[in-house]
Specification:
Largest sheet: 5 strands, parallel
Distance between the termini: 42 Å
Strand order of the largest sheet: 2-1-3-4-5
Shape: globular
Radius of gyration: 16 Å
Structural class: alpha/beta
Order of helices and strands: EHEHEHEEH
Low-confidence stretches: none
Number of strands: 5
Number of helices: 4
Mean pLDDT: 82
Strand content: 15-25%
Length: 139
């Protein structure tokens, strides 16, 4: 059994991207909550009330900056990743972003594997920061 390593919410209209990302992340023990719209993402968050470590938004979707802002207010340690295309740059929420990536127009296996490694590395880094080793008490 694979250890649960974290949860990711992706808001992107590309179903193929969401499905292959879900498969790639599941192999690494990472849960993916896929959403094709902000409305769907809000519904999933309300129904599931999950702990989200990373939010990935496609800047081409209306309302993603407002969603990112709301989620960061609730969880300041949330990493927000923006997927941008040549014609749509996320300037409204740029200050919230941990990372910006170009739109993977064709989710080829090497691209998906690269995304999987990147997400896995972010989660590993977050765990290292969150873990505070106990120090022996001096008498």
């Amino acid at each position: 059994m694979i250890e649960h390593r974290g949860s990711v919410l992706i808001v992107d209209r590309d179903i193929a991207f969401l499905l292959v990302m879900a498969q790639e992340l599941a192999r690494k023990g990472i849960s993916l909550i896929p959403s094709t719209s902000v409305r769907e993402a809000r519904s999933m968050l309300q129904k599931l009330n999950p702990s989200i470590d990373i939010l990935i938004i496609n800047c081409g979707l209306t309302g993603v900056c407002a969603l990112a802002s709301e989620m960061r207010r609730r969880a300041s340690a949330l990493d927000v990743v923006a997927i941008v295309s040549a014609n749509r740059q996320c300037s409204a929420c740029r200050r919230l972003l941990t990372f910006v990536s170009r739109d993977p127009e064709h989710p080829e296996p090497p691209v998906i594997q690269k995304w999987g490694r990147l997400i896995d590395n972010w989660l590993a880094a977050k765990r290292k920061i969150a873990v505070v080793p106990e120090r022996p008490v001096k008498n």
